[in-house]
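Lecture 7 notes: from sequence to structure.

We start with a single chain of 114 residues. Read the sequence below before looking at the structure.
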Amino acid sequence: QVQLMESGGGLVQAGGSLRLSCVVSKNILSASMGWYRQAPGKQRDMVATITSGGSTRYVDSVKGRFTISRDNAKNTMTLQMNSLKPEDTAVYYCNVNLAGGSYWGQGTRVTVSG
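Now the structure, written as C-alpha cells:
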C-alpha cells in the first residue's frame, strides 16, 4: 500500500508564500505526480503535475507563481506557492500514479486572507 503524507498548509496573507510537501512511502522514480485542490463547494481540480522525467504542467491561474518539483532520492514532491491570492484558498491534495495505481494524500488546507 502506498501512503502519502502532506504538510505545509496554513493561513497566510495575500501576497505571501507557502511550501507544500508530499512524502511518499514507496520509491517514486517511475511515478507521475501532481497537486490538486478543492475549494469549498467546488470540484477537485489539477494545479500542477510533474512526470517521471521532470516535465511540468500548470493550470493557467498559477503559472508564474507556483513551482512543482520532486526529489526522487527523498521520495518527496513539493509545491512552492508564491504571490498567493485569496482565490488560492482550498484543500490541496497530492496525487501519485505508481505501479498501476493512483493514490491520494489526506489533504492540507491553505487559507489566504485578503
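The two ends are 40 Å apart (CA to CA). Keep this in mind for problem set 3.
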